[in-house]
Structure formats: C-alpha cells, structure tokens
C-alpha cells in the first residue's frame, strides 16, 4: 500500500468517527436545546404573573389603555401553560411536553393560576372608580372657582368696615386660603396623588364650615369643631349691606360640603374593583411559589439526566482518543521519510543551495526527493546569476549617482554666485532663468542623495551615529529649515509641546526624517488654509513624534504601498508636486535603524505620520 492509499484510509477512519460524533452531538444538542427552551418558557410564567400584577395596578391608577394589555398577558400565560403540557411550538421554538414525573408540580401551577386568572378577568372588566365619588369630586372641582371667588368677595365686603371687624377680616382671609386648599387637595385626590388627602380635606372642610358659621353668627355646636380645638367667638354682627357675599356663599358651601363629606368616607376605587385587586395581589405569591417549585424540579431532573449523558460522552471521548492515537502513529510511520526533506528545505531557506537528498525508494517521497534535488540545483544557478546582476546593478548605480553629483555641485554653486550678483548685475529675466537652474540643480542633488541613501539602506551601509539629544531642539531645527517654504506657500507650521524631551538617536538622520515628512505635508496642504503641526509624546520607553496636517489625505488604495521605494501616490504625468518616491522609504529605513517604527493614519481632514524613537541606552551615553 503506497502513501496515498494509506492516507486515504486513515482519513476515511477519521471522517467516519467524526461523522458519528457529529451526529450524536447534533442530536443531543437539539434535544437539550428543546428542553432548555421549555424550561425557559416555564420560567417565563413567573415573569407573566409579575406583568399581570403590574398591569392590574396600572389600571387601578387610571390607565384604561392597559386593559387590552392585561387581556394579552392572560392569553400569553394560558398559551405557554397549555403548550408546556402538550408540547408544541412557541415563537418558532420547539417546546417539549412536561415529563410524567413533573405532572403533579405542573398541575399545582394550574390550580394556583385558576383563581389568579379569575381575579385578573374581573379587573379587566370592572369599573375602576366609585361613580358617586367620581361625580362628587367633579362637582367640587367645578364649584371650587366659584367658592374662591365668593370668599374673595367676602374679603372685599368687609374691607371698608372699621377695626371692630378686624377679626372678621382675618377669618375671611383664612376662608380664601381654605377654599384654595380644598381645590388643590381635591385635584390631588382625583389623580391618585397626595398621600392621605382625605384626612386633610376633612380638616379643611371643618375649619371652613366653622369660619362661615362665625361670620354668620351661628353657634358652633357640632362635636367636630371641638375635636379640632375650634371654640366659639363673640363677634359683632356684620351690617346687612356688607354681608351680601356671605349670603350667596352659604348655599354654595352647603352643596359642596355634602360632596366633600362623601369623598372623605369613601374610596375613589370601586369596591368590586378594589376587592379583585386585593385578591389578585394576595394570590400572586402562591402562584409564583408554585411556578418556582415546578421550574426547580425540572432543573433538578435535567441535572440528573445530564450526569448520565456526561458518562456516555466520556466513553466516546476515550474511544476517539484511542482511534486518534492509532491514526497519528500510522501517519507518523508513513511520513517519517519527510524529515530528511524538511531538514534539506531548512538548509535551502538558510541560503545553502545545491544539496541533494539521498532517498531512492520508488514512492511519492522518492519522487518528491528527486524533484527537490533538481530544484536545488536550479536555485543555486539562479542565485549565482542574481548575485552577479545585483553586483553589477550596485556598481552601476553608485557610478551613475557619483558621476551625476560631481557636475551638479559646481552648477548649483555658480548659479548661486551669479544670483548673488557677485560677478555683475543681472536683469529680471536672467535672475528668473538662474533661479530655475539653481532650483533644478537642488532638486536633482536631492534626488541623487535619496538614491544614495536608499542604496545604503538596502545594503545596510547607512551610518547611524546615536547620541543623547534634546528632541525639542531637533524639531526646532527642522522647522526653522522648512519655515521659509511654509511662509512662501502661506501654510502654518508649528509644534507642541514645547518642552525638553531627551532620546538616544542620530540628530541629522532624525532631522532628515522630519524634513521629509514636513515636505510631504507642505505638498498635501493648500495655501492660506493649510496647517501643519509637529507633536511630541514623551512615553516611558520611547518618544512618539507625529507630523499632522489638514491636507487632502492619502487614498485608501495607496496606504499599503506608501513606504515602498519609488512609490508615488499621484502617478499621472500632470501631477502638481514632484518627488522621487524615495522619501518615505528612506524615513522608514532610518526609523527602523534606530529600533523604532513608523506609520500613518488618515484624519478628517488630513493625514498624520508618526514614528517612535526608543529611549534605550540613554544612561550609557554621556550628555
């Protein structure tokens, strides 16, 4: 049997065992899920009971719109209870019927539900309020404005009288306040607020009645007056021409007084409704306890069954482990020759080419070994050719960049001398042309420098001289160098925080990184509205330097490539800003040579480039 046949056989065994386990898992999982759904709905019975109680109390508070809600909740309980008894489907979930051993507990819930449901049905149908109490409250509230108006008129009628009637005036003012208080307390009572309003309403009624009798000159012989400490007073009789309002007030007060007396001694809720609500609240705990007992018994039974299932699962797991060990041993024996191939490939990965594997068997591994030997020889030949090409490329690039740089230095130098008019005055056209020559020479020199730096980074030959420096000073130097261009482009260039931050780095190289990032931001921002900010974050083991701008940002498709050599975000021939596409690649190489990292993120608007400088070895280098 060859390796392929053995593999297929072992895979067939593993698939067969997995299929059996998968079937048992799905079957058991579905069964357990249905049982858990059933127990969950059994627990929901308690929630529905609490909701029914809350809705009933809400209806008692006057929320008539809750009657349909109460009816729906009663139906929910009935549906859930009946489905648990017979099994079925609720809300798309399968519900198993109650096990026979739990029928007594299930029926106990139904027995407790019957009286609770009966009281809930009464609450759903009964009128909430006592009709006479409600009518009396309505009457009192409708007449309260007239009552206050007449008491105010009494005050006005007594005002012209002399000081012998000062006591009368005080009583009249007290009646005004009592009339207002009666209206407020009646309103609170009608909306179910204000606590024990009926007792305070009675007190206001007794005092108002006593005050009116005093002004009318009637005796205070009612026992209620004495219970509130009201004693008779000898008051002068009010002249007839000043008692017209009192005569109008008396019949109105008598009609209102009768209504207040009835409200004092009768609840606003109807007796039938109140009785049903009390019974409902008293039955609730009985029903909740029965439901809790039912759910607890079901959970206990499930725990017992689960223990038995765990034992079965453990047996299957042991069988699976035995089969797995057998399969692993068989595969290991079949694949043992691959160890030689793995070691040979590891040698190739380390750069050793041309080695051969000594394996002569005529199976799949033998064919693989022959293929590897041929591949190794081919790679060796390609590697030798690549090294020759790479060496020639490096030599050519170094020669070209050096030869280009040599004539550019005097071109730039002499153009600057001519622009300084050291060799004679220049007309405007000559100055303009010389500026173009100087600028082009500077651009070409920068491009050559970038190419040299990129090549040195590629070969690992870029010199990094690390020392302890104040990063604030380095940032200031970079900003001072770029400030003329920023001013020329009318772009704001600043940094924060302006405090000393020491780190271990090559100052010229980090300044080169900052300069490149600021140049990129200057290209990406618009004149007058452009803003560039350099930010330092001093952390425990490193310093984070960020260059943030409000420019046009970098397209999403370009973000993964911006740190690659020669990559240009704008690759069109008509792009506005120039560049070699090496700046960010060089920045990445310099930062990583310091042991840091560099990244970018798009803001709204603009872009932020950030890099880190480790503080490592600061204590080893003198400042």
Q: Which properties best describe this structure?
A:
single chain; 623 residues; alpha+beta; five-stranded mixed beta sheet; two-stranded antiparallel ribbon; 15 helices; 66% helix; 8% strand; disordered C terminus
Topology, number of strands? 9
* Uncertain ranges: 571-575, 618-623
Count of runs of 4 or more consecutive helical residues: 15
Distance between the termini: 74 Å
**Which structural category do the helix and sheet elements fall into?**
alpha+beta
Q: Report mean pLDDT, rounded to a whole number.
A: 80
Topology:
Layout: H1 3-60, H2 67-86, E1 88-90, E2 93-95, H3 103-125, H4 131-158, H5 166-190, H6 197-216, H7 223-227, H8 244-265, H9 271-335, H10 338-349, H11 364-419, H12 428-459, E3 467-470, H13 471-488, E4 492-496, E5 502-505, H14 507-524, E6 531-538, E7 542-549, H15 583-593, E8 598-602, E9 607-614
Parallel strand pairs: 4-6
Antiparallel strand pairs: 1-2, 3-5, 6-7, 7-9, 8-9
